[in-house]
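Translate structure to sequence.
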């Protein structure tokens, strides 16, 4: 789920939509190194807003994010992950799981979330159904103390929703998704649709994130099976 191309007015009355120049910002990673979004001009950027580091929903999404970031790195695309937490919690709970495939930035004050005018849910449950809550239960137990220390009783953080932006080499928003629940993120099919065809993955393996690779794998497998069938003869002989 998620809103593909919703328009929201930010505090400066700008509307962020596909085709707009992305707002610039500067944030620090867990080591205090500053990163400015505009410094990545000339390269495509996948910008992903998480909630807070100890959030069980975000913890649940880390494996997917790691695999996706690794794939995008191979395609020459920069992944930037912004987290509404102090560097201490990001360094302990997020960075080790994403390895070196994503630039992870701290926005504890939420200034960039505000600039991008990201959505919030009406309650800290994030619009998750009972089934999803059961899925997340192991993560909630594992990070219960961290959740308390990281987010505390800050309702603005607890109600924050994720968002993803695909940004072109010249800083234009190519696609965006504002989540409707805490589990929503942009599908890899949508991300890949923004990548030039000559840069897209062509590994053609069954476990690839790319729908095209998985489809090609199935087609190749079907063709190989058909050739084996013809080669063996319809009566079970070797065809000779």
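Result:
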């Amino acid at each position: 789920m998620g809103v593909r191309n919703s328009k929201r007015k930010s505090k400066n009355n700008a509307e962020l939509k596909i085709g707009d120049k992305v707002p610039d910002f500067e944030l620090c990673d867990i080591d205090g190194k500053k990163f400015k979004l505009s410094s990545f001009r000339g390269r495509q950027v996948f910008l992903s807003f998480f909630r807070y580091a100890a959030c069980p929903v975000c913890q649940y999404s880390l494996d997917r994010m790691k695999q996706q970031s690794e794939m995008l790195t191979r395609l020459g695309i920069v992944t930037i992950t912004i987290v509404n937490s102090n560097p201490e919690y990001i360094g302990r709970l997020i960075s080790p799981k994403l390895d070196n495939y994503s630039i992870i930035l701290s926005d504890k004050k939420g200034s960039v979330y505000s600039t991008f005018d990201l959505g919030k849910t009406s309650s800290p449950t994030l619009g998750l159904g009972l089934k999803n809550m059961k899925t997340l239960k192991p993560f909630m137990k594992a990070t219960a103390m961290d959740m308390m220390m990281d987010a505390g009783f800050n309702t603005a953080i607890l109600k924050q929703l994720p968002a993803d932006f695909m940004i072109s080499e010249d800083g234009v928003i190519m696609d965006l998704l504002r989540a409707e629940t805490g589990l929503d993120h942009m599908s890899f099919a949508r991300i890949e649709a923004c990548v030039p065809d000559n840069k897209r993955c062509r590994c053609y393996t069954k476990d690839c994130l790319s729908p095209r690779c998985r489809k090609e794998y199935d087609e190749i497998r079907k063709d190989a099976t058909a050739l084996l069938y013809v080669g063996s003869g319809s009566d079970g002989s070797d065809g000779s």
